[in-house]
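#struct-help
A.M.: can someone run this one for me? Single chain, 307 residues.
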Amino acid sequence: MVDEAVRGDDHSTVSLQALLALRGQVGRARVAPSVSRLGSGQQSSRLYGRGMDYAESRAYQAGDDVRRMDWRLTARSGKLHTKLFQEDREGSVLIVLDSHASMRFGTRGRFKSVQAARAAAAIAWRAVGAGERVGLAAYGALDAVLLPRTGMRAALAVCGALARWDALPVAPRSELLSAALGRLRPLLRRASRVVLISDGFSCDSAAQARLRDVAVHASVCTLLVADALELQLPPPGSYPIEHAGRQVLTVLHTERQRRDFQRALGAGARHLRDLAAALPCRLLQLDTGSDAVAASAEVFARRRVRA
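D.P.: on it. C-alpha cells below:
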C-alpha cells in the first residue's frame, strides 16, 4: 500500500545521491561521546578481561564467570548482574541489513527498505568519521557481503552497494534470521559493533542464541524499521493493498477488523522487540517518516545500565 507521498526518488527506491548527501548531515551532528574521546580507529569494545577498565554491567547469563559478578548492583536490584570490561582496539562496525520483500512497503514517508538504506548509510558515514572500519551484509532476498574497510572509500562503497542492491529485482528468496547469523558468523566474530536493521518478520526463536553469542564479544544494536500501520491501529476505511503485482481492496470498518489487520502487520515488530528484550542488546525504533541520521547517532550512544 503506497500513498502519493512515498512515490518517487528516495521514497520507493534508494537514491545514491541522497545517501551521499547524508554525509553532510552526519558531519554536522555531534559525535557520540563513546567514540569521540578515543583515538582514530579506536573504539571502546565490549570484551572481557581482568585488569582492564570497567565498562558496564548487565544481567547475569548462564556461563558467565562468577569472578566478574557485580555484587553491589546485584544487592540493589535483587537480580544477578555481571561486570563487563573494555579494551581499546580498532573499531569495526558490521551492518546486517534485512532485504526481504516485506521491506518494500510504506504508507508514510518512505518504503521501509529506503529508510533502512538511509540508516545504514548514516551509520557508515558516522563510523568512518570516527575512524572505524565499516562493512555491510544483506540477508533475505539478497545474499551479499561488503567486507569492512576504513576511510571515505568504505562509506562510499556502502552507499554504492545499497543503491545497487535496491535496484535489483526482488527475489522470492527468504532467510530466517538465525540462518543468516549462522552464515555470517565468521564476519560477525571479527566485528566490535553489530547493527541489525530489520522489520522483524525474519525473526525466529533460534536467532536468540545466535545473537547472544555475538553479544559476548561485540556491542549489538537492533534497529527496528516499521511503517505507521505496523505500529498503530489504522483509521476506519478501505485500503488498496498491492502485492505481487495485484491490488486488493481491504475493508477495515469495525474495530475487530482494524485490530486483526494491525496485529498481522505488526507481527514483525513484536518479534524483534521480544528478541531484543531477551538479549543484552539495545532496540531502537525507526519509523518510515523519522530522521535516519538521528537514529544513527543513537546507535553509537553509550548504553546506560539499568538496575
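A.M.: thanks! DSSP finds twelve helices and eleven strands in the chain.
D.P.: also worth noting: The two ends are 42 Å apart (CA to CA).
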